[in-house]
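Just curious. Protein, please.
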Amino acid sequence: MEERFPLSDFVDIRTIDTVTCDLVNRFVERRKEMNMSRAALAKEANVSYASLRRFEEIGEISLASLMKLAKAMDMLDDFDKLFTRHKIKSLKDYLKKKYRSN
């Protein structure tokens, strides 16, 4: 059954598809800002052109290839930010953390 009114039209819901789409869009934008063609970036990163094209067109790529591309674009440090947030176990923990960072 087709959704008549997708919930994501009304509420910002992060799904694997939306996160992937946003990541690909930022990646392509960055590549273009750097004035790099797909072929040039693939060669620089030592990643096949087909892998890069598949990533930009349908969002599929191996983690190793994505990291090579990030390194070639001087964006490898962004991977260090993944999985760094600590799980909030209570409102008290959340408020402590929030007011410490301000």
User: Anything to note?
Assistant: Helices lie at 16-33, 38-45, 49-58, 63-72, 91-101.
